[in-house]
């Protein structure tokens, strides 16, 4: 025996062992290539169908509706901002009213006691400042200590309202008016 013969027989034996696996893998690779070619053909056919649908279809122009939606959203944001400002102001007014109510009750009690005692109270001492919807706000003035920052005819509530941040109401038209104008 020569040394070439055992190598040849080993090679031949290995080829016989791996030949079924190689044949199977080769068949599978060929099947995958056929499937890919079939898939490419189907993709091409679908592309042609979609292209024809795209050219034949008439789409509705929604840009006008989108603009209206954007404008409506802006209006809603403006109204929400206005309502938030109003709510903040009402909260501040309510807090001020809660703080001033005990003072008003005390002033009324003092006034009633003085009236019951028969004392003529000085007009400058107890003076009605604002009368609105059955509510009377009274302020006791001490003539010996005039307030240099006091504005004549302006109540504390009006000062606080004037100090609140302002919103331009003219810029914020009601939504119904603007929609009527657009039509």
SSE topology:
Blueprint: H1 4-56, H2 63-117, E1 126-132, E2 135-140, H3 156-163, H4 175-182
Antiparallel strand pairs: 1-2
* Poorly predicted regions: 126-155, 164-176
The N- and C-terminal alpha carbons lie at a distance of 106 Å
Which term fits the overall shape? elongated
Q: Mean pLDDT, nearest integer?
A: 72
Structural class: mainly alpha
Largest sheet composition: 2 strands, antiparallel
- Sheet-strand content, in percent, reads 5-15%
Summed up, the domain count is 2
- Biggest sheet strand order reads 1-2
Number of helices: 4
Give the beta-strand count: 2
The SSE order reads: HHEEHH
Rg measurement, Å? 46 Å
| Helical content band | 55-70%
GO molecular function, one term: SNARE binding
Protein name: Biogenesis of lysosome-related organelles complex 1 subunit 7
Organism: Acrasis kona
Family: Belongs to the SNAPIN family.
Could you characterize what this model shows?
- The protein has 183 residues and is mainly alpha-helical.
- It folds into two domains: 10-59; 63-182, no CATH class.
- It is 68% helix and 7% strand.
- It is built from four helices and two strands; from the N terminus they run H-H-E-E-H-H.
- A hairpin with a 2-residue loop joins strand 1 (126-132) and strand 2 (135-140).
- It is elongated and about 145 Å long.
- The model is unreliable at 126-155 and 164-176 (pLDDT under 50).
């Amino acid at each position: 025996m020569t040394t070439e013969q055992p190598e040849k027989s080993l090679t031949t034996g290995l080829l016989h062992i791996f030949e079924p696996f190689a044949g199977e893998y080769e068949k599978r690779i060929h099947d995958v290539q056929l499937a890919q070619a079939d898939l490419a053909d189907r993709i091409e056919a679908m592309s042609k169908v979609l292209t024809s649908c795209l050219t034949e279809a008439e789409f509705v122009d929604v840009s006008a509706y989108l603009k209206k939606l954007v404008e409506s959203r802006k209006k809603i944001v403006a109204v929400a901002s206005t309502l938030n400002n109003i709510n903040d102001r009402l909260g501040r007014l309510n807090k001020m009213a809660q703080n001033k109510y005990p003072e008003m009750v005390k002033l009324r009690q003092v006034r009633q006691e003085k009236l019951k005692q028969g004392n003529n109270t000085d007009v400058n001492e107890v003076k009605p400042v604002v009368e609105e919807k059955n509510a009377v706000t009274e302020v006791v003035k001490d003539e010996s200590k005039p307030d240099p920052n006091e504005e004549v005819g302006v109540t504390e509530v009006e000062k606080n309202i004037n100090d609140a941040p302002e919103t331009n109401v003219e810029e914020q038209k009601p939504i119904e008016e603007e929609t009527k104008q657009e039509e």
